[in-house]
Amino acid sequence: MVEPTFVLLHGFGTSSREWVHVAEQLAGVRSLHPDLPGFGTCAAQGACSVSEMAEVIAGAIGHAGHRDFVLVGRELGALVALELAARQPPGLLGVALVHPAWRADPETVARLRTAHGNPDALRAHYAAVLGSAPDERDLENLILDGLRASKEAWNAWLDQAEEPPRLPDVPVSLPVLIVSDNDSPVPSLPQASIQTLAPESPLLPLQAPGPLTRQLLHWSNNLVKEARA
Question: Is 73 exposed, middle or buried (0-12, 13-18, 19+ CB in 10 A)?
């Protein structure tokens, strides 16, 4: 068995560009990081359900011809990854949930509702999330992604963020890794291994790409060893 492909799914309001540093540090390991419907280059597709997004990602994986793969999803992408994992697609070895952000607080939701299409509001939001001295290119990409996101998709996901998250009807039987901080709520999955990672930020792929990549590679290497045993 060769090293599995990493399928990297971005969070709310961003695009595949949030995984650029992780993809670079994966070095020779193959990765696929598509834009979710309603965001990034797929903004024109508008609002889609989690199930519909999972279907789109399954099609992208099949089209790319990846045989063995792991799903890695952050925030919104974590919901999509879980939904797809519950379908047990051929070749899937495990699923990693990065800062699942299982439910957003009302203040954040209200702030983000007014931020769509407003570069100043987006800059203020992401500057606060990224903390002091954020990478200017990363910050600009986040702002641009927030400006081009579908308004329908943006509002649909904020509506969902105010409700308790819904786990897939079919339990996920594959290995699950959850990477988050100490204070964030995480889904209740009996088979999940939970790892904490600093800094305490929902944008770990941008703020801690090195430690996150090492954690993901260590996890995937163990999955391969178990599959070969």
Answer: buried
